[in-house]
Amino acid sequence: MPKLDEADRRLLKLLQRDSTLSTQALADESGLSSSPAWRRVRRLIDEGYIARQVAIVPPVKVGLHAMAYVQVQLLDHTEASIAKFERFVQVEDQIIECATITGTSDFLLKIVAPDPEGLEHFIMRRLLALGIIRGSVTNFVLRQTKYTTAMPV
């Protein structure tokens, strides 16, 4: 179990909700004074509990109205195939998540596009064109009922 006390957990919860809170606001809402709050946040960053602070952009606000989860099965599991696939994933902005998974597929991708045709184009003309994919299963997202990046601390 991580070595976090209750004050650390309160700070992490607050920062996961809004990373733009000032040190004073963090102190006020966590029940700490300003200096200890600042020191704790610095320690949480230094120890890797806070990996980065980002802005979360709703996909529809930037014209991305289609989302899909795509299970991918590679033709083989050679180092070359895996490296080629992982390089592709890293450079493609439309792939917003990738995980190695168990079961009949090797990877699970979360892909966004302006519309369903854009998803189809990306999958057919970019992903499957790699030449290392044995098969894929695509699940289009109809509606997201929950989305969070916050970890339960």
Automatic annotation (TrEMBL):
All residue ranges annotated as the HTH asnC-type domain in the record: 4-65
Pfam families associated with the record: AsnC_trans_reg, HTH_24
This protein's UniProt keywords: DNA-binding, Transcription, Transcription regulation
This protein's name: Lrp/AsnC family transcriptional regulator
